């Protein structure tokens, strides 16, 4: 078991004592009056939540071990000097590690070291040492995924702070707000924010519904920051619609004309009317009970942040159509930020014209969320909107073309063959949840979706104006907010190329950026035991939204990567791509430094029975690809590595290739070949509802990656695809004749992967990808001219190159 903490920030001795006094653990002059043991016993007694009666506290101490043979109360009675071993044996128990299960009671310091817990060791403990070590212990994460101070708070340790005057909140500990806001008294309200567009063609500016949950104190003078999650799923989804709209992918690729152009997408009105303001209100008139929530937001809510959710245009109780990533969708979410900052109108309801302002907000906003939610956070950040101080974009799309297309090909996100922009628009068009509203807008929506289908162009797969409108990379230079990126290195849904493009651009801008790369797929990481992610966010937002001088930017690592071979291990780096470049040539069936010669070929056709089986179960095809002997792919493998190496960056494949038709596609997979136990593909749940987010508040499920029980022989670490007619750019179609050798160069997905000693790097070249591309099962023969084929990996480093 390893616990990695990156959110513990530097404090002075004076700060530590002031903070301990502010939470009523330390009192004035105690440091001068009490012995080290008496100070320790006093601090322990004050964190005992069951009772403040001395006899009950003594019984609690009697159930804690100080040494293998002495209960803690008996040890105090003996008045022996405090030692490192005694302090940390007790600390492990407070942190909920199990004696004789997680650690040896005769040797607690070994467990402390192996787990990576922060420590203070002293040859002779003084009262000052006890205070400093206890302060550090309160900030230390335990077995169940939270710091001791948060664990105590969830048990009611800070409940007294609910009664503090608003001007005394929030209370900070180690630079982070504590959970001192009563969730039972949260204000829940709804407002309708007016936008500057009319996407449903009714002649009126679209209104967007926002749901707000904020502390009661924000009604009594405390200005709080807002954490806003833009979620088109928030008001419900049309799952059956999505299933019906899903496209058939068992169709052949076709030759593309160099003169083909897709139809333009729908244009929205530029003239429309705004709602007349008829009055002002200080309080909302509409409320809500529950809303789909991100558990990180629940964690932040009791720490004083107002939590805001909006589904945007084309959703239940809002106006407009679902436009799937368009500038209009971005602007509908930008409008929410503008209202929170004080720059836009909102109303208490849809029709009265009664205006309401966010007077409770300090004007500072952060955006959070994963996938579509993180995508819209990124999109809004590229507008440079005032008030948006930070975004935490997890698994976010930065170009929708890279989500639904690739290098002139229709390419599905992982697990969603046949999905496309129109399918997602249908699924999230939750105005259907209000039947009368839907009937009024049905024809308009149908017309829009039909035009979207034509404009997104599944016929060619080319980059066009539709996708250019949904490419946020054009506007990265406008970003003013601090950006924390979180992405799974194994995410086949929103692929790592999306975050790599954002990361690379941010390095050139005068904004703060952080990136966390984990070994998961399309997941949240805020409930991992091995990482203090929620604390990191709390520290960071305290700086960006509350204005705390807590050294957050210096404390949090710039690049943080979860190791793929060592469980619960997170390493810090200065940058993503680093180290020396390495080029592999294709030589026979090997990746070597020596250029190969000759022609190798493979067929893309499969017997009908096998083809249909693989269409129904693409995972069976993936297994067959690894084992293929050259029938429908070519394999090239390096010699085993002598030492661990870390592959960092974006691999590039160059191929000299020919197709037996006047069209074709090539795919590639980069593989780690080697027998060994690898991490589970998904985090393992080991404590349901075990992570308490506050006192009498929400919970989360504690999860963690573990080593698989059995060894495996391989792992896919990157892939890529290209249409042979788009060998220069995704927007440019080149002619191709049958059996014409052409050179294509394309990127695989960015990687940060440890290839352990003895493993081999493999590259598989093939055509149809049953998991992602169209699959027409045509009789096409592909040829590779090995003299023109090579693999380039720009970042190869050893452990010490961090």
Please write out the topology:
Layout: H1 13-22, H2 30-33, H3 36-46, H4 54-62, E1 65-67, E2 70-71, H5 72-78, H6 84-94, H7 108-115, H8 127-138, H9 148-154, E3 172-173, E4 176-177, E5 187-194, E6 207-214, E7 224-230, H10 239-245, E8 279-281, H11 295-301, E9 306-310, H12 327-341, E10 346-347, E11 354-356, E12 361-370, H13 372-381, E13 388-394, H14 401-404, E14 405-406, E15 409-410, H15 421-428, H16 435-456, H17 465-468, E16 482-488, H18 497-506, E17 513-518, H19 533-544, H20 552-555, E18 559-562, E19 570-573, E20 580-587, E21 590-592, E22 599-603, H21 608-616, H22 618-627, E23 633-637, E24 645-649, E25 652-659, E26 665-676, E27 684-692, E28 699-704, E29 712-723, E30 742-747, E31 751-755, E32 760-766, E33 781-785, E34 790-797
Parallel strand pairs: 7-9, 7-12, 8-11, 12-13, 13-16, 16-17, 17-18
Antiparallel strand pairs: 1-2, 3-4, 5-6, 5-10, 6-9, 14-15, 18-19, 20-21, 20-34, 22-33, 23-32, 24-31, 24-34, 25-30, 25-33, 25-34, 26-29, 26-32, 27-28
């Amino acid at each position: 078991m390893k616990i990695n903490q990156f959110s513990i920030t530097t404090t002075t001795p004076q700060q530590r004592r002031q903070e301990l006094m502010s939470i009523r653990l330390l009192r004035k002059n105690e440091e001068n009056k009490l012995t080290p043991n008496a100070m320790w016993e006093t601090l322990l007694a004050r964190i005992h939540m069951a009772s403040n009666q001395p006899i009950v506290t003594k019984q609690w101490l009697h159930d804690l071990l100080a040494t293998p043979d002495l209960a803690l109360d008996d040890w105090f009675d003996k008045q022996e000097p405090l030692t490192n071993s005694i302090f940390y044996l007790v600390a492990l128990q407070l942190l909920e590690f199990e004696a004789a299960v997680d650690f040896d009671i005769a040797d607690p310091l070994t467990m402390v070291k192996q787990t990576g817990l922060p420590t203070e060791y002293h040859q002779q403990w003084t009262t000052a040492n006890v205070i400093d070590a206890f302060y550090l212990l309160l900030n230390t994460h335990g077995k169940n995924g939270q710091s001791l101070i948060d664990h105590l708070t969830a048990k009611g340790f800070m409940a007294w702070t609910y009664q503090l005057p608003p001007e005394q909140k929030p209370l900070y500990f180690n630079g982070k707000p504590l959970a001192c806001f009563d969730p039972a008294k949260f204000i829940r309200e709804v407002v309708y924010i007016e936008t500057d567009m009319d996407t449903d063609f009714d002649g009126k500016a679209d209104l967007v519904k926002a749901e707000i949950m904020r502390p009661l104190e924000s009604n009594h003078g405390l200005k709080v920051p807002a954490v806003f999650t833009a979620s088109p799923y928030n008001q419900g989804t049309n799952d059956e619609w999505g299933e019906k709209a899903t496209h058939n992918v068992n169709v052949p690729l076709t030759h593309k004309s160099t003169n083909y152009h897709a139809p333009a997408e729908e244009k929205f009105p530029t003239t429309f009317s705004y709602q007349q303001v008829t009055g002002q209100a200080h309080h909302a008139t509409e409320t809500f009970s529950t809303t789909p929530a991100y558990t990180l937001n629940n964690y932040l809510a009791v720490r004083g942040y107002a939590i805001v959710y909006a589904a945007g245009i084309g959703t239940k109780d809002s106006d407009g159509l679902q436009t799937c990533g368009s500038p209009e969708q971005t602007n509908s979410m930008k409008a929410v930020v503008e209202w929170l900052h004080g720059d836009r109108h909102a109303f208490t309801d849809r029709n009265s014209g009664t205006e309401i302002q966010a007077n409770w907000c300090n004007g500072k906003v952060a955006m959070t969320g994963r996938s579509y939610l993180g995508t819209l956070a990124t999109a809004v950040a590229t507008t440079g909107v005032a008030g948006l101080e930070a975004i935490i974009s997890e698994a976010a799309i930065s170009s929708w073309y890279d989500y639904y297309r690739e290098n002139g090909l229709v390419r599905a996100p992982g697990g969603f063959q046949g999905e496309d922009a129109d399918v997602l628009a249908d699924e999230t068009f939750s105005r259907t949840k209000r039947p009368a509203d839907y009937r009024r807008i049905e024809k308009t929506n149908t017309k829009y979706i039909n035009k979207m289908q034509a404009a997104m162009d599944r016929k060619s797969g080319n980059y066009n104006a539709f996708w250019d409108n949904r490419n946020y990379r054009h506007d990265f230079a406008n970003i003013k907010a601090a950006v924390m990126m979180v992405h799974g290195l194994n995410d086949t849904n929103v692929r790592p190329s999306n975050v790599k493009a954002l990361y690379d651009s941010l390095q050139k801008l005068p904004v703060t950026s952080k990136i966390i790369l984990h070994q998961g797929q399309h997941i949240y990481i805020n409930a991992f035991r091995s990482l203090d992610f929620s604390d990191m966010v709390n520290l960071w937002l305290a700086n960006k939204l509350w204005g705390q001088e807590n050294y957050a930017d210096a404390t949090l690592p710039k690049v943080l990567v979860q190791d793929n071979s060592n469980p619960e291990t997170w390493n810090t780096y200065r940058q993503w791509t680093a180290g020396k470049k390495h080029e592999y040539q294709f030589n026979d069936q090997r990746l070597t430094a020596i250029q190969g010669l000759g022609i190798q070929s493979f067929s893309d056709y499969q017997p009908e029975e096998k083809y249909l089986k693989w269409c129904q179960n693409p995972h069976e095809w993936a297994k067959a690809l690894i084992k293929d002997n050259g029938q429908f792919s070519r394999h090239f493998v390096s010699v085993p590595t002598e030492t661990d190496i870390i592959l960092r960056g974006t691999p590039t494949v160059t191929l000299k290739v020919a197709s037996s038709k006047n069209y074709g596609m090539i795919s590639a997979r980069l593989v780690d070949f080697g027998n060994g136990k690898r991490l589970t593909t998904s985090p393992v749940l080991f404590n349901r509802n075990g992570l308490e987010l506050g006192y009498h508040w929400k919970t989360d499920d504690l999860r963690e990656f573990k080593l698989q029980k059995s060894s495996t022989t391989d792992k896919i670490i990157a892939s890529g695809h290209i249409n042979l007619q788009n060998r220069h750019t995704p927007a440019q179609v080149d002619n191709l004749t049958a059996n014409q050798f052409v050179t294509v160069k394309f990127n695989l997905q960015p990687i940060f992967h440890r290839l352990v000693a003895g493993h081999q790097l493999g590259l598989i070249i093939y055509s149809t990808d049953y998991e992602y591309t169209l699959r027409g099962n045509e009789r096409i023969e592909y040829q590779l001219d090995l003299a023109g084929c090579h693999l380039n990996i720009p970042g190869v480093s050893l452990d010490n190159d961090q």
